[in-house]
Design brief:
32% of the residues lie in helices and 21% in strands. With 603 residues, the chain is of the alpha+beta class. Among the domains are: 178 residues, Dipeptide-binding Protein, Domain 1 (Dipeptide-binding Protein, domain 1), CATH 3.90.76; 243 residues, Dipeptide-binding Protein, Domain 3 (Dipeptide-binding Protein, domain 3), CATH 3.10.105.10. A six-stranded mixed sheet has the order 13-21-12-18-16-17, with helices on both faces. Strands 1-10-9-8 form a four-stranded mixed sheet, with helices on one face. Strands 4-5-7-6 form a four-stranded antiparallel sheet. A hairpin with a 2-residue loop joins strand 14 and strand 15. Helix 2 packs across helix 8 and helix 11 packs antiparallel against helix 15. The two termini are 48 Å apart.
């Protein structure tokens, strides 16, 4: 995700917004379900109104209506954001093509990116949505973009070409650098008039994040909280139907697809992981992306009309080592042995219920991606790490470890021991840590699991304040394959005194590839101008990952979203062109709703 010098910064900025949605464990009592049903039944719409219902843990009082900041803005961390504030397009993670929303298209003219809006778009306040909105929104984002980001930080200047077209000038662009621009949410020029015009002028004068002019501008911007959210999508907020328990979005006929969507209203109930599961069980919610516990997953089976909607996972959880704190793991045989001790299927099942997939290829990429760039014959050569404790013992003995009285000892005679950290409140991480603890202890390696506070595990990981950590691998943020290797090798691996992180040496010797500079190879995979060069770099990175196993992938996220058919939704789409999309960025159910392809039940 992030080039040097800050490898772990983008996870601090981005992943916490979405990856936290992937964790949750526990259920709620029957009394709570009754209270929630009572809230759900209260108010909103006539019997002839078609209604789609979802759930998200919003807070009307604390969350801002300054939607350009995204993090902390009302519903901007939910999958429902595209319904009222559209992006330029939705990315197809399978074909790597765009399904445009507000945009008509984009093209490169040398180092210039030319972006065009669809004609005749309007905001929910009746004003025209045009290039001025786009220009000012882009300029504000350029000012706010941290220098280590990808896309907006590389924009040199901006220009309005006509009422529907904007030019963004880049220096040395590389393939897909424009993704963040296409995915950006354009906001109202009227709402942000005092900020947008100044931002355009500052950007074209060379002002960037941290400069004095930006600091002054930002001091006003972060305090800005408009009274309402002006919407571009097919729905808008109905202030008369907003409460602490539910938000109602009504049809925005002036917005994009406002006359084509099949539902008159979208109701979003307030609920956390526990409450959302109850709302599904009571039939008050049609679709939820909040994480149900294993017990809730079982309870859903008795709900009439229930079905799972599966969203592909592009990351998972596994083990990240601190190579400086525990020098013994610098021996690849030790890392592989520790992997062979673990039963990934059992750990995934306990941690995630049915909402996990096993790891098959151990290529550093999600299996779905590995199978896109490697042939089946090539993948057959990859070492797999299914549980094999005899193999684990052989590897440790080769590494000079010895076992006496059921305990393993290091070559220097010290008893082997590890502390494994999970994250408090992240149920799947907690359960993964305790199962690793149990497995390694049973094998004879003294292991203790503990949980760090959920408010800042990123800081703990980056500072290297751990021996072994349950941590993500792969990448749910960047569809390009190189993003997984930036996560696996570079994130939390800055190598500085303040942020040593993993402490994994990026200059490696691969048994089959020879001497490899990992950072340089990731950059090649990111910036390669030809597909052949890119694929070659990616394949090398995958092979090196499999051979050296810098992290142990244990399980992959399989995002199972509970859905109920037959109450308000006639039927959810199954195999769609975008069904392999990442759930929180480019949700194919929400896209189907926007495109009018999600049918309501008609009385």
């Amino acid at each position: 995700m992030t080039p040097t010098p800050s490898h772990n910064a983008i996870l601090n900025d981005m992943s916490r917004r979405r990856l936290l949605k992937a964790v949750g464990f526990s259920t709620v009592g029957v009394a709570g379900a009754g209270a929630l049903s009572a809230c759900a039944a209260d108010g909103g719409g006539s019997s002839d109104t078609t209604q789609f219902t979802g759930v998200f843990d919003f807070d009307l009082d604390s969350q801002t209506r300054n939607v350009h900041v995204e993090d902390g803005a009302l519903l901007l961390n939910s999958v429902y954001k595209d319904l009222f504030l559209c992006t330029g397009g939705v990315f197809n993670w399978s074909t790597h093509e765009w399904d445009y929303l507000l945009l008509e298209g984009h093209e490169w003219d040398g180092n210039d990116l030319v972006v065009s809006l669809k004609p005749d778009l309007k905001w929910s306040d009746g004003t025209d949505l045009n290039a001025d909105d786009m220009l000012r929104s882009y300029a504000m984002r350029v000012l706010e973009a941290p220098p280590w980001g990808i896309g907006f930080p590389q924009v040199q200047d901006l220009e309005k070409l006509d009422d529907l077209t904007v030019r963004l000038g880049f220096e040395n662009p590389f393939p897909n650098i424009e993704r963040s621009i296409i995915k950006h949410r354009i906001v109202s020029k009227v709402t942000y008039e005092n900020f947008g015009e100044r931002a355009v002028e500052m950007v074209n004068d060379g002002v960037r994040q941290g400069d004095d002019e930006h600091v002054e501008w930002n001091a006003e911007f972060i305090e800005y909280n408009p009274d309402e959210i002006v919407c571009s999508g097919p729905y808008k907020f109905d202030e008369a139907q907003m409460s602490d328990a539910r938000i109602t979005l009504v049809r925005n006929e002036d917005g994009y697809q406002g006359t084509e969507v099949a539902f008159d209203e979208v109701v979003i109930h307030k609920g956390d992981n526990r409450q959302s599961a109850l709302l599904v069980q009571s039939g008050d919610v049609d679709y939820s992306t909040l994480a149900p516990s294993a017990a809730d997953q079982q309870a859903f089976q008795s709900v009439e009309g229930f079905r799972w909607i599966e969203h592909a996972g592009y990351d998972g959880a596994g083990i990240m080592f601190n190579h400086k704190a525990k020098p013994e793991v610098q021996d690849v045989r030790v890392r592989k042995a520790l992997a062979y001790v673990l039963d990934g299927d059992q750990i995934g099942q306990v941690a995630r219920g049915d909402a996990y997939s096993r790891v098959t290829h151990y290529a550093g990429l999600a299996d779905i991606q590995a199978e896109e760039i490697f042939s089946a014959e090539e993948l057959a050569d990859f070492e797999t790490f299914d549980q094999d404790q005899e193999k684990a013992a052989e590897l440790l003995e080769e590494a000079g470890w010895t076992k006496e009285d059921g305990k393993w000892y290091l070559p220097n005679g010290d008893e082997a021991s590890f502390e494994v950290i999970g994250v408090a409140g992240w149920g799947d991480f907690e359960l993964t840590a305790t199962q690793v603890e149990e497995a390694w202890n049973d094998f004879g390696i003294k292991t203790e699991a503990r949980n760090v506070p959920e408010d800042n595990p990123w800081g703990i990981w980056g500072e290297g304040d751990f021996e072994v950590a349950v941590r993500h691998w792969g990448n749910p943020e960047i569809p390009d394959y190189w993003g997984a290797f930036q996560m696996n090798f570079l994130t939390e691996n800055a190598g500085t005194e303040e942020s040593p992180g993993q402490g994994f040496d990026l200059q490696v010797e691969s048994p089959s590839q020879g001497d490899v500079d990992i950072a340089e190879l990731v950059e090649t995979a990111q910036r390669a101008e030809s597909e052949e060069e890119q694929i070659e770099a990616l394949k090398t990175l995958s092979i090196v990952f499999n051979e050296l196993l810098p992290r142990i992938p244990i399980w992959t996220y399989k995002y199972l979203s509970p859905a109920v058919e037959g109450i308000r939704v006639e039927e959810f789409p199954t195999e769609t062109p975008t069904s392999q999309n990442e759930q929180y960025q480019d949700n194919h159910v929400i896209l189907a709703l926007i495109q009018g392809e999600l049918p309501p039940v008609r009385s």
